[in-house]
Amino acid sequence: MATISVVIPCYNDAGFLAVCLAALAAQTRPADEVIVVDNSSTDASAAVARAAGARVLPAPIPGIWPAASTGFDAATGEVIARLDADSIPPVDWLARIDATLTASPEVDILTGPGDFYDCSPALARLGRVAYIGGYFRAIGLWLARPPVFGSNFAMRRAVWLELRGQVHRDRADIHDDLDLSLHLGPSITVVYQHTLRVGISARPFQTWAGLRRRLEWAYRTLALHWPAASPWRIRAARRAWRAGAADRAGQERREPA
């Protein structure tokens, strides 16, 4: 059983954060550490986190990626799980993560989708199919493997130690999960688990401006990695890595015991 740190970046989300932390407190497999990164909130977010027993860290730079990376750096667990302040994990969320990563040591990152709440059933379905489903389908095709979903994933700490100096962690105008996904090398194994679900707020759909900003961030994140992380270069790197792995395996079989 690996130790698990849960990292939650937060900015002025005291109400949502209280619900998220209550859901974490109810887990059948408790977190070994909960870190809330306070992104210069002016509300009671930090007080809510401390009252729930979370470790509170200040973010040196405003933005989701700077806040999340601050938490990842500070995490002591062998596995780093990530939620947003408005995420609501079911009681078996950490148990599922623990079970999968324990049973499958070759899995480096485990991710799953989200279910929108605080909206109409029609809007929740639209968000699930078009927004989240569209993200996994479109970026999955780009990467030729599942992308990471920032509101619901867990990675082995070794992955972060390898990538923390490569990602654009100081950028507040890009998607942190997409940036992380684009930096994952061909040796990293990402597994999408449909049953690993969390509740997420429908706030992205409340205004056209908010939705447009998220789409602009997606475009900017992809453009930032062009052409180094273009689909054909990603596939070429993966083919080369697989060929090298096959050669190494063949060499090991040929060597005398």
Summary, kept brief:
This protein has helices at 14-25, 45-51, 64-74, 93-103, 121-143, 157-163, 176-183, 208-224, 231-254; strands spanning 4-10, 33-38, 55-58, 79-82, 109-111, 114-117, 153-156, 190-192, 198-201.
Folded structure, characterized:
The protein has 257 residues and is α/β, with parallel strands linked by helices. It has helices spanning 14-25, 45-51, 64-74, 93-103, 121-143, 157-163, 176-183, 208-224, 231-254, and strands spanning 4-10, 33-38, 55-58, 79-82, 109-111, 114-117, 153-156, 190-192, 198-201. It is 47% helix and 15% strand. Helix 2 links the parallel strand 2 and strand 3. It is globular and about 65 Å long. The mean pLDDT is 94.
Indicate the structural class: alpha/beta
Overall geometric form: globular
Q: How many DSSP H or I helices?
A: 9
Give the radius of gyration: 19 Å
Helix and strand arrangement:
Elements: E1 4-10, H1 14-25, E2 33-38, H2 45-51, E3 55-58, H3 64-74, E4 79-82, H4 93-103, E5 109-111, E6 114-117, H5 121-143, E7 153-156, H6 157-163, H7 176-183, E8 190-192, E9 198-201, H8 208-224, H9 231-254
Parallel strand pairs: 1-2, 1-4, 2-3, 5-8, 6-9
Antiparallel strand pairs: 4-7, 5-7
Helix pairs in contact: 1-2
